[in-house]
Design a protein that fits this description.
Blueprint lengths: L2 E11 H8 L5 E4 L8 E7 L7 H4 L5 H9 L5 E16 L2 H10 L4 H10 L3 E18 L6 E11 L7 H13 L6 H14 L3 H13 L21 H6 L2 H4 L4 H19 L2 E2 L12 E5 L3 E5 L9 H13 L2 H6 L1 E5 L6 H9 L2 E4 L1 H13 L6 H7 L3 E2 L1 H32 L4 E2 H9 L9 H11 L7 E4 L8 E4 L8
Parallel strand pairs: 1-3, 9-10, 10-11, 11-12
Antiparallel strand pairs: 1-6, 2-5, 3-4, 4-5, 7-8, 8-9, 13-15, 14-15
Amino acid sequence: MSLVNLDRAIRLPAPDVTGLIQGRTIAALVWRMFNPGEQYALYPGIISGDLPCDRFYRSSFLPLAQKALERLNSDKVLIKAWARCELCQILNNSESLEALSRLTIWQTEALQQILQQRPFIFVAYLRVYLLPQPLEMPVHPSGNFVSLPKSLTVTDSTPVLSDNIFAKRRQKLEKLEPPEHPELEELQSALVHLSTTNPKAQQLEAEIKMFLGGSSDKPVKPIKRDLSWINTIAALGNRTKELDKDKSNYQAGTDFEIVVRDSLEFLGFTIDYAHKGGAGGLDLLCSKPYPLVGECKAGKKIPNDTAVQLLNLGTLRLKDKEILAKATKLIIGPGIPTPQLMDAAKVHGMAIMNPETLEKLVKLQSNYPNSVDLFKLKEYLKPGQSDDEVAKYIEQVEQEIKVRSHVLSILKKYHENSGSERASVDALSGAYSMSNPPKKLSREELHEILVELSSPLTGYAGRIKGDNSQSDRFYFLRDLSLDD
């Protein structure tokens, strides 16, 4: 990390500054030859010239360009980044302009108009770094350079693009090679319109952006809907004073039943809402992926007769002893079961779980969607108190996630260190074994995990399938972040 002193900003069109900050481009159109090493803050200004915005910028970038210009209607300017010139090229023929357009945010028509007005086009390749805090300053109506209100001392610790991605983008620009994924760029631009109101579109747009190399400093985490209710599961089961205020025993019990049903549904069970608790009712009945019946008890402890109650209500509601015998039977409630309840639960094959354990399970599913395998979970729902067994299952899942996250980090580092875009299992196996991994893996186990991570349903890695596992090749797509 090095310190940099800045006292001036370079004025660029506001859309260009947005494109640089978001990693959509590494190029800027400048008015003279820039020397490598020149460094300035990035000042967003208006577009010069006669062409309107929709003819200056490519359609894939136009929504962002229009938003950037809308934000200029103020007497203040926000400076969010600074840049260092890495290279400056001179272009003076139409063929080069068309290739440049495909690799940047500008339309060929705009570049041609600039070339008609000047003998050359100067294209500066800028390595962009984010400021720790945006700098607000008054608008300066003119000038290629703008003096900052005060000198800034910044570092190069927050690059918009990693060294590896920037190097690849620079090479393509220098050689004017065609972009690798033009279709994905078009899809990303289409999603920009939806991303402000649709969380799923926002998530997909962010992941495509990262895949294209426009966001490499942090892994993209799933955008989650409001799941604050998860944090109330244990409290409702234990009937805390804060959540129990002015509630009757019946209402407190009903609230807990509702949050338990929501929890099981969130985990992947199909709830049969025809059996909705209440007086004389069965609290829980799940039909898929396997039958599950259950009772919920909020309070300080679970009553002794709960096991008998579940057996009687299950028989009454299901009207089939064989189905009840095969069904998973679950009691969810607070405290340590009495010896009488424990004996009854073991005799009738009923698992007892505390609300805290259910909350941990749901949080696991929330942090890592679809990580809870309900059939595997079933194996840990042992007759009697099952919290310790379920805790083992949660720990096992978290360990498997940690291993997969580590495998992805090895794949990512391999690309960055070797410069190769594809990795064999043999190469990764050696790197993995030398990386202090959370778990030892054989070559075959590593291959299985890489295939799993490259499934279209996971999308953490990509796979180029060979004739056999020896010739399979893998490449990194996105991180699997670990929640603290």
